[in-house]
């Protein structure tokens, strides 16, 4: 300390240098933030170059039709019409002084786009309809950021060039409709939000112990019986919570009285599913069906008790009784169910579940014991392996790629199954999946299970998630993308859905699309998005940092 006191001028110089460097860094950050605040796009584009000047948009602007990019043209047309409360001039060729054009550019990747905004108009370049659609959503967000929803005769967009493409191919949202049911109309709203933030996968968890939610013609009791339940323990929890928070109120549209009992439930008809899939396809969202087998099948077993080894639904030490793969009629049931599912979902991937399988009924079943001897099986896991292998072969013969929860890596599966990693306490599971050659979708329970935690810390933890921090290169090369999951045991209503999902949906969009992260930038860019959610009355979780 005495030595330092001899050189006060040196200390002052060092401090001044540190202050100068800090100020320079802060200035550079402010310049970046300023640029991002101008466009307000989520997820953050890859490259944004600001230019001088502004584009003035009014009723005289010409929107040029493009036969290949009609969906994108429609998005921009609707956004401008809402902002100026006037129809937009549309033309097959550029006309007048200012035009908005979608232009084919074969030099770009399929999902890539480039937006050039000048005082003369907008050129949105892409190679494919999906790239053009992503460009249109960025333009739509910029229009909102410029107008904040206010209607006026004109508005301005800052001149800039944006070049953008996604980091991950799989940017997914998973919704459990078994524990609590959501209407077809609300599913369409969810698809709107996914499209707005360039998320491209919607996984519908259509069956579980608590309810079977999809019409199957060959097995009508699956919906006549399996789609309905008397109130269970989690329903009672929601009712208790609703005494102090009305968001926990169970949606009365899905409650009926029959034979002196109160029943809760519902299901989607085949036409409902066709409507959902068609709407999602038009918004470049792939709908992934999940029929969870062989466990979590209580709803199906209540309808058809013979599916169980013990001819009834029930619970083992941890989980519910599974169906009985040792019975060929049960395997035939599985094939027939999936054949009807495949007919409804054009997606080239399907999810067969295979998590949390309680094997006690298999161990106690003489039929399964004989089956194991007949097939030289050494343990109960091999029964599950048999089920997975047989169902996988059936689905692959129909042209489908199979996804399963990463529980199945504990057995012997081949490398064509896509693994959805959720068991974050099983640390070596991703490495085992990668070593087996399986592609991986990351959805570890922390931070991707949205109903497990709320608040600022949960949002920050999700935003800061980076697979490179957790996994070696051998795993990262197999990772196809990220997905959040909303399990709905305590999510009985649309307002509660929104409280758990937003703004973490925006955070998911950013970490799935953008390779770099800037938490402060995200906070700045989120402000107009909060205003947008306010305008459409979304019941989001308000962060503590939102002023």
Short characterization:
The protein has 547 residues and is an alpha/beta fold. The protein contains 20 helices and 20 strands.
Please give a structural write-up:
It is a single chain. The chain has helices at 2-5, 8-39, 70-84, 129-147, 184-196, 221-224, 233-241, 270-282, 298-303, 328-344, 360-364, 366-374, 381-397, 429-435, 445-448, 456-463, 473-476, 494-501, 504-513, 519-535; strands at 47-57, 62-64, 89-91, 99-104, 113-118, 121-126, 155-164, 170-176, 201-205, 207-208, 211-212, 228-229, 255-258, 261-265, 286-293, 349-353, 401-405, 418-421, 440-442, 479-486. The protein has 20 helices and 20 strands. The longest helix is centred in the first third of the chain and has 32 residues, at 8-39. By secondary structure, it is of the alpha/beta class. Strand 5 (113-118) and strand 6 form a beta hairpin. Helix 2 packs parallel to helix 20 and helix 3 (70-84) packs parallel to helix 4 (129-147). It has 2 domains: 39-164, 2-Layer Sandwich (Chitobiase, domain 2); 170-182 and 192-200 and 214-227 and 254-486 and 499-535, TIM Barrel. Strands 8-9-15-16-17-18-19-20 form an 8-stranded parallel barrel, surrounded by 6 helices. Strands 1-7-5-6-4-2-3 form a 7-stranded mixed beta sheet, with helices on one face. Strands 12-14-13 form a 3-stranded antiparallel beta sheet, with no helix packed on it. The radius of gyration is 27 Å and the shape is globular.
